[in-house]
From TrEMBL:
Region feature (Disordered): 1-57
InterPro entries: Fe-S_cluster_assembly_SufBD, SUF_FeS_clus_asmbl_SufBD_core, SUF_FeS_clus_asmbl_SufBD_sf, SUF_FeS_clus_asmbl_SufD
Pfam families reported in the protein's UniProt record: SUFBD_core
Segments of skewed composition (Low complexity): 1-19
NCBIfam families noted in UniProt: sufD (TIGR01981)
Family: Belongs to the iron-sulfur cluster assembly SufBD family.
UniProt protein name: Fe-S cluster assembly protein SufD
Gene encoding the protein: sufD
Species assigned in the record: Pseudoclavibacter endophyticus
GO biological process assignments: iron-sulfur cluster assembly
Recorded superkingdom: Bacteria
Length: 412
């Protein structure tokens, strides 16, 4: 059965074998006899291809683009992209190695195939792929800084190869200017237990379109955390494919949109085997004129995914007039033999009663606003499970809130 949804976004990794391409109508390359004018109805039918020419020109009316400021992104979506010349800082952690590989590396494209024109453009345009290999059953923490992208439109491809039974906390931090379209693949080997944090601390004006694909194998666990704070336009779409019994995926997200900033995430959790589990929890705060966030969450429980346990939710806190949050949860269930599945979404304004209560006890309005927003977002920070990183993120969030609230109220 399928629950009613408000969006017909879909996905393709799903009905096709790894590396198999679908055309812009969602058909496998060998399919015949389908009416070419039948629109995509489900997430699993969404077209995929590594060739940007297989996707129609983006107008902004498409389901996957209708919330995005496409007029500001055309050079990344369909323009010429140079291979990214990023700077990578090796964390010097045993069990974490960094290298470059050519485009013919067998791992490229195994976790997922692009499902939109920008992702395909990045796939067709990158030079060498960055490879981060994680191995060893001992706990380890690795912070990898990515910077130096510059303002020239560029393409990148990253493979995070997590070996069987590996354990680690991996942080990918993005700083500086950027006009970047990229794909990131996570290959999570059998029995591995890994947390990955993608931290967007871009400079003002940066534009970042990123598609993350995770393939999670038997009895493996991936916690994937997206933290988007900097940049002008950041669109980071994450998909996790639970491909074997016992696979467990958790997708978390934290975002704070300031005046004029657009932060977007389209999330896909694909249950493609029995006895799999997933949780999705994204929380965002918005403050300032033109602040915008978009969250679309798709969960697909396939006919072969008996015993699935899944839940997704999104919460948004609007702190001022002029800000807008779009939230669309979708759930498709193709088997009735599941442990449980559900979704929830809520967007609310700052509670004036809470503000009045704090101010009545001598707390200034700006500080009261910061306290409420910080408390709201802290749940996701704590999910990372590392005190040092949590302290650093809380300091960054506090600084963002301090600057934003000061601009809103005309005082710090």
């Amino acid at each position: 059965m399928t629950t009613p949804t408000t969006t017909t976004a879909s996905s393709a990794q799903s009905g096709a074998a790894p590396g198999e391409q679908r055309n812009a109508l969602g058909q496998n390359a060998h399919a015949h006899g389908r009416d070419p004018f039948v629109p995509v109805q489900t997430r699993s039918e969404r077209p995929s291809s590594t060739n940007p020419a297989d996707f129609a020109d983006v107008t902004g009316r498409e389901a996957e683009w209708k919330y995005s400021p496409v007029a500001k992104l055309h050079d990344l979506i369909s323009g010429e992209l140079a291979p990214a010349n990023e700077r990578i800082d090796d964390p010097g952690v045993e069990g974490v190695t960094i290298s470059r590989v050519s485009r013919d590396d067998a791992r490229i494209g195994t976790a997922g195939i692009p499902e939109d024109k920008a992702s395909a453009n990045a796939f067709a345009s990158f030079g060498e792929a960055l490879v981060i290999e994680v191995s060893g059953e001992d706990d380890k923490v690795a912070l990898i800084d990515r910077s130096g992208f510059g303002n020239t439109p560029a393409a990148a491809h990253t493979i995070v190869d997590i070996k069987p039974h590996a354990q680690a906390l991996l942080v990918l931090r993005h700083t500086g200017p950027a006009a970047l379209a990229e794909n990131v693949e996570f290959l999570v080997g059998e029995g591995a237990r890994v947390t990955v944090v993608s931290l967007q601390e871009w400079e003002d004006g940066a534009r970042h379109l990123s598609s993350h694909f995770a393939a999670i194998e038997r009895d493996a666990y991936l916690k994937h955390v997206v933290v988007s704070l900097g940049g002008d336009i950041v669109r980071l779409n994450s998909s996790a494919h639970l491909n074997a019994p016992g696979a467990d995926g958790e997708l978390f997200g934290l975002y704070f949109a300031d005046a004029g900033q657009h932060l977007e995430q389209q999330v896909f959790m694909d249950h493609n085997a029995p006895k799999t589990r997933s949780r999705v929890n994204y929380k965002g705060a918005l403050q300032g004129e033109g602040a915008r966030s978009v969250w679309i969450g798709d969960v697909l429980i396939r006919a072969n995914a008996d015993g699935t346990d899944s839940y997704e939710q999104n919460r948004n806190l609007v702190l001022s007039d002029g800000a807008r949050a779009d939230s669309v949860p979708n759930l498709e269930i193709e088997t009735g033999n599941i442990e449980g599945a559900g979704h929830a979404s809520a967007t609310g304004r700052f509670d004036d009663e809470h503000l009045f209560y704090l101010m009545s006890r001598g707390i200034a309005e700006a500080e009261a606003r910061r306290m409420v927003a910080h408390g709201f977002l802290n749940e996701i920070v704590q999910e990372i499970g590392n005190d040092e990183l949590a302290e650093r993120l809380n300091a960054i969030i506090e600084q963002e809130l301090y600057q934003s609230t000061g601009r809103l109220l005309g005082a710090s």
